[in-house]
């Protein structure tokens, strides 16, 4: 093998490695509007409902809305309690309240109500996905925060086919 072929092979490997690193690290998603880190550790003070928590992040108290999911309403002013809302809310309370979680932020950091937007992880458990898989939430995709839209949609279809949670009751 000549030196040109060797260099070409090395460059090809370098390009492949760089492409893989970009796909895995996805640095464009870390630059969320508002700057700051792409993730944070938080202590959940309370679960507000099925898809919103109040958490302490670095000494600050924040309302955090789960990205990619929507649970039936239980506390929205002027809106009646919706079918399967109490079950979704109770599950979220039981799962995350008074626990440490990891928040992974989307590209847009806050919603129109000022809440932080995040994917929530309890250890290795992806809370957003757990809610959908159990039929406690529907998917809600709002670009550009759509990183997990496809897997969440697959979980939603599985829950609906199996009649789990709200899919069997509402």
Strand and helix layout:
Blueprint: H1 3-25, H2 27-30, E1 39-47, E2 52-57, E3 60-66, E4 68-70, H3 85-96, E5 100-110, E6 116-122, E7 125-126, H4 127-133, E8 138-140, H5 149-162, H6 166-169
Parallel strand pairs: 3-6
Antiparallel strand pairs: 1-2, 1-5, 2-3, 4-8, 5-6, 6-7
Helix pairs in contact: 4-5
Structurally, how many domains make up the residues?
2
Helix % is: 25-40%
Task: Quickly give the structural class.
Answer: alpha+beta
Rounded radius of gyration (Å) = 20 Å
- End-to-end Cα distance: 67 Å
Q: In what order do the strands lie side by side in the largest sheet?
A: 1-2-3-6-5
N-to-C SSE series?
HHEEEEHEEEHEHH
Output the CATH class name of the largest domain.
Answer: Mainly Beta
- Count helical runs: 6
Quickly list its features.
single chain; 170 residues; alpha+beta; OB fold (Dihydrolipoamide Acetyltransferase, E2P); two-stranded antiparallel sheet; globular
Mind explaining what this structure looks like?
The chain has a five-stranded mixed β-barrel with strand order 1-2-3-6-5. It has a two-stranded antiparallel sheet with strand order 4-8. 38% of the residues lie in helices and 28% in strands. Strand 6 (116-122) and strand 7 form a beta hairpin. It is globular and about 50 Å long. It contains six helices and eight strands. The longest helix has 23 residues, at 3-25. With 170 residues, the protein is α+β, with helices and mostly antiparallel strands. The protein has helices spanning 3-25, 27-30, 85-96, 127-133, 149-162, 166-169; strands at 39-47, 52-57, 60-66, 68-70, 100-110, 116-122, 125-126, 138-140.
């Amino acid at each position: 093998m000549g030196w040109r072929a060797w260099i070409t092979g090395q460059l090809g490997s370098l390009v492949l490695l760089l492409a893989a690193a970009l796909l895995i690290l996805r640095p464009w998603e870390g630059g969320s509007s508002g700057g700051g880190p792409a993730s944070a550790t938080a202590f959940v003070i309370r679960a507000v409902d099925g898809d919103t928590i109040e958490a302490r992040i670095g000494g600050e108290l924040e309302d955090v809305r789960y990205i990619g999911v929507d649970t039936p309403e239980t506390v929205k002013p002027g809106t009646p309690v919706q079918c399967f809302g109490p079950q979704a809310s109770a599950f979220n309370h039981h799962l995350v309240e008074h626990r440490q979680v990891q928040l992974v932020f989307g590209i847009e950091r806050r919603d129109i109500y000022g809440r932080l937007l995040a994917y929530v992880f309890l250890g290795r458990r992806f809370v957003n996905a757990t809610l959908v898989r159990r039929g406690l939430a529907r998917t809600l995709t709002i670009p550009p925060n759509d990183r997990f839209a496809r897997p969440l949609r697959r979980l939603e279809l599985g829950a609906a086919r199996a009649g789990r949670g709200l899919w069997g009751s509402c």
